[in-house]
Design a protein that fits this description.
Blueprint lengths: L2 H15 L17 H5 L9 E6 L5 E7 L4 E6 L20 E2 L2 E2 L9 E5 L2 E11 L4 E6 L4 E7 L18 E5 L18 H4 L2 E8 L6 E9 L3 E7 L7 E7 L8 H4 L6 E7 H9 L4 E13 L4 E14 L7 E6 L3 E6 L5 E6 L4 E6 H9 L3 E5 L2 E4 L1 H4 E6 L5 E6 L4 E6 L4 E6 L5 E6 L4 E5 L12 E6 L15 E7 L6 E8 L6 E5 H5 L24 E5 L2 E9 L2 E3 L2 E6 L3 E8 L8 E5 L7 E3 L4 E6 L5 E6 L12 E7 L8 E3 L10
Parallel strand pairs: 12-17, 35-38, 37-43
Antiparallel strand pairs: 1-2, 1-33, 2-3, 4-5, 6-7, 7-8, 8-9, 9-16, 10-11, 11-12, 13-14, 14-15, 15-18, 16-17, 19-20, 20-21, 21-24, 22-23, 25-26, 26-27, 27-28, 29-30, 30-31, 31-32, 34-35, 35-36, 37-44, 38-41, 39-40, 39-42, 42-43
Bound molecules: sulfanyl-(tricuprio-$l^{4}-sulfanyl)copper (K7E) and dinuclear copper ion (CUA).
Dinuclear copper ion binds next to loops.
Length: 659
């Protein structure tokens, strides 16, 4: 959410409701007596759930245990990470390739766990890059980013990466409409209405490997697609997208995109779109986007530039897209576990509209339309509406479901979570959040089978909740027990970056599949060294390749001479360990990038260009054994043109023993 727009929304709503302040009064005392016990996970005990939380502008994803709120891991996704050498090692740099070159940062908002039959299956978690549009797939066997695909014809990949119930597709809807990649983009900004278009990308996911591929795109009117969710059960085959800026403003959107009383939720019949693709209705467009894949056998990234995409035009194919009017500047677009109810959350709306899939189908069949929006039929509001939740709160953003017939909606402006019944649309409970909640998460809360024990609120403003840390305060998550009729706050925990969406999965589903080591005999890295005896140093022109091994507690070789100024040195370090949780690190003085952290059985490469003559120690950065501090060595760098021969050794004794 953009703060400015929200502030405007606050002003509007405060005026409308004569509200002075939204800050809940009992901020400090809202936790009841038995709360600590509910969130307490004793030392040595495991959490019940993994919680995957977006890092927002950190470009990372953080993994917490629930209910403890313990931070388990930070996964670099659209970011480099010196802790793991991610994006710094020669093998992983390619993961951040794009058509714009190496892009080591992005803005990650929405983690989405893979599903089978509408239930979380624990295989992968996807994440979106907002800025330079990309989708990442993280493998939950390794907790590492396995693949990143760039999205052409897009900008601000926000309504993404939501998935269908068997992970057939990952979706990417553009936030900014822009001229297509292949159209002339050098046009006046004021020609928005004529030249700016939206694109929705349907990215196919291979059932076995998870490999992603853009199956097709749908070209749409130039609006801002904000969020989306797939239909499920009876509505499987459909996708729903919230759109704002249907005014098609190109400046001062906080005012100009808040004009219309209703924007839209766009319903997309993707099964129909598939039929059109099969019938050859897709137009091939030449574009340029990168697809990067980390291969666990070669321990290398394969990065390729793709050149083509198939595009369907929503204007020409009248029966794939429909607009449903939705008040007002909708943000969240959430589908209940049955697939019947579609909840729109208008940031500036004073009600929550709930649409019925059955009614929508009837309205489409009966052509119960209210004209067209840029060639797309507009279904009559009342014809698709199931009902409205009246006076729920101010500034609804996102809704999750408990699978027991209840919905939970976050309210940014009134800073609360509101529980309501889907059938009778009655508000059942409300609790304050500290402060100004964005997304919510219930484990499985957007799947067919939520597990309704906990709800986590991810807040935008922390104010006084934690010890201050300079101008920027820690971001905040709050854990609620929702097993009873009333929600109960049981824990605050700080988060990494700015949390937007998050998902959670039962621990067992993921913990049972963990990769513990990579088998050294299966290592197909081109510079692998499978045993100490094979370790060596090879000169190729001004490139020096060090085939190095690491094992507790030494490198082989650990003495290298004959490197000259002007050389590029590649340390290809193979970790020979075959035990769980025994990585070795590698660092060399003066290296301008990072260390390496090499997993058991894996090979990683650090490129180092020495900048001066002298002695350069190397060492292991990960405390791997009692003699970790002995895990070190030396590289001698001589002047250009020196005749020191290239030599390497391990265990050679001193020339001049100490006296
Ligand atoms: Cu923060 Cu999903 Cu980008 Cu709402 S989004 S809060
Ligand atoms: Cu290897 Cu420390």
């Amino acid at each position: 959410m953009k703060t400015k727009k929200i502030l405007y929304a606050v002003a509007l709503l405060a005026a409308a409701y004569n509200l002075q302040s939204c800050k809940p009064k009992d901020a400090g005392s809202a936790v009841a007596g038995d709360a600590a016990q509910k969130a307490y996970v004793a030392p040595g005990k495991y959490d019940e759930y993994y919680n995957f939380v977006s890092g927002g502008f950190s470009g990372q994803m953080a993994v917490y245990g629930l209910p403890s709120g313990r931070l388990l891991r930070v996964i670099p996704v659209f970011s480099v990470d010196p802790e793991k050498g991610w994006g710094y090692s020669e093998e992983t740099k390619g993961m951040l390739n794009t058509s714009h070159g190496f892009v080591p940062w992005d803005d990650l908002h929405h983690p989405e766990l893979s599903q089978t039959n509408g239930e979380i299956d624990g295989r992968w978690v996807f994440g979106n890059a907002n800025n330079t549009p990309r989708i990442a797939r993280i493998d939950l066997k390794t907790f590492r980013t396995a693949e990143i695909i760039e999205i052409p014809n897009s900008a601000g990949n926000h309504s993404s990466p939501f998935i269908t119930e068997n992970t057939e597709y990952v979706i990417a809807g553009t936030r900014f409409s822009v001229p297509g990649d292949n159209d002339n983009g050098d046009v006046p900004i004021s020609s928005y209405k004529k030249n700016f278009k939206g694109h929705l990308s349907f990215i196919g996911v291979d059932k076995e490997t998870g490999r992603m591929n853009i199956s097709f795109q749908i070209k749409t009117p130039g609006v801002n697609f904000d969020l989306s969710h797939a239909g499920k059960g009876k509505s499987h085959g459909w996708f729903f997208f919230s759109c704002y800026n249907t005014e098609q403003a190109n400046s001062l959107l906080e005012v100009n995109a808040s004009q219309r009383d209703k924007d839209f939720i766009m319903a997309v019949n993707w099964k129909k779109a598939e039929e059109y693709i099969k019938a050859g209705k897709g137009k091939k467009q030449s574009v340029k986007y990168s697809r990067n894949y980390y291969d666990e056998k070669t321990h290398m990234t394969k990065s390729e530039i793709m050149k083509e995409v198939l595009v369907l035009d929503s204007k020409e194919l009248k029966d794939i897209c429909y607009m449903i009017p939705c008040p007002k500047s909708p943000h969240g677009c959430d589908v209940d576990p049955s697939g019947e109810y579609i909840v729109g959350s208008g940031k500036l709306a004073a009600i929550i509209p709930v649409f019925s899939f059955d009614k929508l189908q009837k309205a489409i069949a009966a052509k119960d339309f209210d004209g067209e929006y840029e060639g797309i039929p507009v279904v009559k509001y009342e014809s698709a509406l199931y009902g409205e939740v009246k006076k729920p709160g101010l500034g609804p953003l996102h809704t999750e479901f408990d699978g027991k017939g209840n919905a939970y909606t976050s309210f940014f402006v009134s800073s609360e979570v509101v529980k309501w019944n889907i059938k009778d649309l009655k508000v059942l409970d409300r609790v304050p959040t500290y402060y100004s909640v964005g997304h919510l998460c219930i484990p499985g809360g957007d799947s067919k089978k939520p597990s309704p024990k906990y709800l986590i609120a991810y807040n935008k403003i922390t104010k006084d909740r934690y010890l201050p840390t300079g101008p920027e305060l820690s971001q905040s998550a709050q854990l609620f027990d929702i097993s009873g009729d009333k929600m109960q706050l049981i824990l605050d925990f700080p988060t990494i970056g700015e949390p937007h969406y998050a998902q959670a999965a039962p621990a067992e589903l993921i913990s049972k599949n963990q990769v513990k080591i990579f088998k050294i005999e299966e290592n197909q890295h081109p510079y692998v060294t499978k045993g100490e005896k094979e370790s060596k140093v090879v000169r190729q022109g001004n490139q020096i390749h060090v085939y190095m091994t690491s094992i507790r507690s030494h490198f082989s070789p650990d003495n290298i001479e004959g490197v000259k100024l002007g050389d590029e040195v590649y340390f290809h370090v193979t970790n020979l360990e075959q035990d769980w949780d025994v990585p070795h690190g590698f660092a060399v003085k003066g290296a301008s990038n990072a260390e390496l952290l090499i997993m058991p059985g894996e090979t990683s490469t650090l490129k180092w260009v020495p900048d001066r003559v002298g002695m350069f120690p190397i060492y292991c950065t990960d405390f791997c054994s009692a003699l970790h501090q002995e895990m070190q060595g030396y590289v001698r760098v001589s002047p250009k043109g020196s005749n020191v021969p290239l030599t390497f050794s391990l265990g050679k004794t001193n020339e001049e023993p100490a006296k």
